[in-house]
């Protein structure tokens, strides 16, 4: 047995290295996805339309990722989307901050943009962001533009003789 181990020591070390790297990879992937939970604090926001938002969607301020969507559910009374946002612990927002669902471009994905307000009081874990704006229906807007079915301009008054 000892002779067999001496002959295969290199193979055993390479196998051990492969197992360690695989465990690191799985742990890293778990921590960076929605499965990992993460650290920080939770805020809640209600949106009339949360199209494009799902668990794991980025939460950004000034284009910088500061959190992600933790959960989403439908409020059965108001039929609004209730979204829980996990925000990095070192980032604090005033109580009059706003949240909007925006997209990175016509073909880009959606994210939630948080805009800080000016109130000196800060949101605490579990608070709700009151000022929200839901996702815009880009396909509907493009259809209105193409079909010219948007609001009509008022007719010009006839010229006086």
Present the secondary structure layout:
Layout: H1 2-7, H2 9-32, E1 41-47, E2 58-61, E3 64-74, E4 81-87, E5 98-103, E6 110-115, E7 128-129, E8 131-133, H3 138-147
Parallel strand pairs: 1-7, 2-6, 5-8
Antiparallel strand pairs: 1-4, 2-3, 3-4, 5-6
How does this model look, in words?
- By secondary structure, the protein is α/β, with parallel strands linked by helices.
- 25% of the residues lie in helices and 29% in strands.
- Strands 7-1-4-3-2-6-5-8 form an 8-stranded mixed beta sheet, with no helix packed on it.
- The radius of gyration is 25 Å and the shape is elongated.
- The model has no long low-confidence stretch (mean pLDDT 83).
Summarize the structure.
The protein is α/β, with parallel strands linked by helices. It has helices spanning 2-7, 9-32, 138-147, and strands at residues 41-47, 58-61, 64-74, 81-87, 98-103, 110-115, 128-129, 131-133. It folds into 2 domains: 2-32; 39-135.
Notable features of this structure?
elongated
């Amino acid at each position: 047995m000892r002779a067999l181990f001496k002959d295969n020591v290199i193979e055993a070390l390479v196998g051990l290295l492969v197992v360690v790297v695989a465990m690191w990879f799985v742990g890293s992937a778990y921590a960076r996805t929605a499965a990992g939970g993460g650290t920080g604090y939770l805020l809640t926001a209600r949106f009339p339309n949360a199209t494009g938002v799902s668990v794991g969607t980025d939460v950004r301020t000034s284009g910088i990722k500061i959190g992600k969507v933790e959960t989403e559910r439908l409020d059965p009374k108001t039929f609004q989307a209730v979204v829980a946002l996990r925000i990095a612990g070192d980032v604090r927002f005033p109580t009059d901050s706003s949240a909007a669902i925006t997209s990175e471009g016509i073909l880009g994905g959606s994210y939630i943009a948080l805009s800080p307000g000016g109130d000196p009081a800060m949101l605490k874990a579990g608070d709700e962001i009151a000022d929200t704006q839901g996702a815009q229906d880009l396909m509907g807007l493009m259809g209105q533009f193409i079909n010219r079915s948007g609001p009509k301009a008022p007719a010009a008054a006839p010229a006086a003789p």
